[in-house]
Structures are given as structure tokens and as C-alpha cells.
Amino acid sequence: MEIQKSFKQEGASLYLVATPIGNLGDMTPRCIETLKSVDLIAAEDTRHTKKLCHAFEIETPLTSYHEHNKDSKGNQIIALLEEGKNIALVSDAGLPCISDPGYEIVADAIKAGYAVVPIPGANAALSALIASGLVPQPFLFYGFLNRVKSKKKKELEDLKYQPFTTIYYESPHRIKETLQVMLEILGNRRVVIARELTKQYEEFIRGTIQEILEVADELRGEMVVIVEGTTEKKEEVVWWQDLDIIEHVNYYIEQGHSPNESIKRVAKERKLAKNEVYRTFHIN
């Protein structure tokens, strides 16, 4: 067990700093102060973060940290923490680690004994959820579905019977296919698509999957897709459903159980009286 006291910490810290998801006005004073005070900012895209830093007069040096260099840069960041340097991690928009790189360096920093401090701010998933009009809790954040259609179908099959609201991210060139697969697997549920969040053209499209499919070709920008949960229950499939009672009892006998113990097990699994199973097995 380890206990982190973020504001009573000796040594260096890794700060996870939220950045705007569209509107620069969502950059909090604490986020700005943190980015100014750390020794280095690790950014998903340094070109994008340079513009953000320029807007808020942040002169802290930048380094890249993204999906393709996270192993080598992660080692460098841990080394800098060992030197007593405070590091801020940012993604292009929103909170680090949410469908963006960051989890690995967070885990490594914690393992090495350094504090990991969240600096909260804008988040697309929660912003879309609270304005969706769908039940806001409990919810499941899933992020991006697989790009491969067959794998996407498998993911949605696994999620089909979730009773709570589910949140996905999707890109404009895959939204139509995703909605079509959702309709096929989940049925015609209520859905809310939030696009261009916090920007001038922010838009919420609320309706059934079939209704939204009618305008899917017109949708642009990164999207959050909120899908209502279901009250439908998954039909329970039992391994012995194709066996008759005698075959069922013999299965357990073949596993090394006594006939009497096998009959007890079968009676319990089939929710039958033991005597009924006994008679069926011995009479036949």
C-alpha cells in the first residue's frame, strides 16, 4: 500500500494537466499556473501545445510524448523526476490518459515513488454526458471502438446488455458505419451525438439510431456518442442444455463423481427434485 499526499509531497511530481477541448476560455488558472511552474511539459503534439502556450504566455520548455515514443520518452521523464524536475503531461485536448497516451508514464511514476497530481479541466465525454438528456449515472466510458468492422461488432456484442449509459468517441469518417453496426447489434436505441464541443459550431443531435443515420453523412468533427442502456436481459446459456437427464448424470460420473453425488449435482443445476432425477436415471 502507498499513500500520496499531493500537497505535502517531498520531491518531484508528475502533473496531469487538462487543456481546452475547443474553447480557450476553458483553460483554468490552475492549469496555466502549473504549466508555467513546472520544469518541462511533455506534450502529445508539441506544435499544437506551442500555440496553447503562446496564447497564455507560458514559456516552459516542451518535449514530445506520444504513442510512438512513449517507451523511450517515458524513461527520460522518470530520469528527470529522479533529478527533482517537475513534469507536466498534456494531450492535444482534454485530460491526458483518456483515449490518449499517458497511462504508462503514470504507472511508471507511481511505481518509482513519485506523486502523480491531476489538474482538472475540460473533458469531452463528461461534457457530452451531462447535456445528453440520457441517464447520467451509472455510465460506462468506452472511448474509441475498434476500426475493424468485425472487431467493432464483437465489442458491441460484449456491451449489448449493459444497463447503463455508454460513452464512445468516434471520428467523422467512421460515424456512419459505427451507427449502422450499433443498429444491427444494439437495436434502435436512443442516442445523442455531441460534436464540436465548446466551439462555435457546438451541436447536439438527439434521437434514435435510425433517425441519426439519416443525417450521418453531414456530420463533421470529432464526436462523442452517448448510447442509452438497456433493460433487456441476456439469455442465460447453460453448458448442459443439449443433454438429457441421463447424459447429464453420466457426465459427472465420467468426471469421477459417485452416481449419488452426480444425481445431486444434476438436480441442483436443473432445479429438480433429487428423487425425480434418481427415478429418471435408474428406471431408464
Automatic annotation (TrEMBL):
Q: Which Pfam families match?
A: TP_methylase
Broad EC category: transferase
Which coarse location class describes where this protein primarily resides?
Answer: cytoplasm
Q: What is its EC number?
A: 2.1.1.198
- GO biological process: any one? methylation
Which UniProt key words apply to this protein? Cytoplasm, Methyltransferase, rRNA processing, S-adenosyl-L-methionine, Transferase
Question: Domain Tetrapyrrole methylase, which positions?
Answer: 14-212
Q: Which PROSITE patterns did the record assign?
A: RSMI (PS01296)
Compartment list: Cytoplasm
- Entries under InterPro entries matching the protein: 4pyrrol_Mease (IPR000878), 4pyrrol_Methylase_sf (IPR035996), 4pyrrole_Mease_sub1 (IPR014777), 4pyrrole_Mease_sub2 (IPR014776), rRNA_ssu_MeTfrase_I (IPR008189), SAM_MeTrfase_RsmI_CS (IPR018063)
Q: Which reaction does it catalyse?
A: cytidine(1402) in 16S rRNA + S-adenosyl-L-methionine = 2'-O-methylcytidine(1402) in 16S rRNA + S-adenosyl-L-homocysteine + H(+)
Mention one GO molecular function. Answer: methyltransferase activity
Functionally, this protein is described as follows:
Catalyzes the 2'-O-methylation of the ribose of cytidine 1402 (C1402) in 16S rRNA.
Question: Which family does the similarity line name?
Answer: Belongs to the methyltransferase superfamily. RsmI family.
Q: What is this protein called?
A: Ribosomal RNA small subunit methyltransferase I
- What species does this protein belong to? Turicibacter faecis
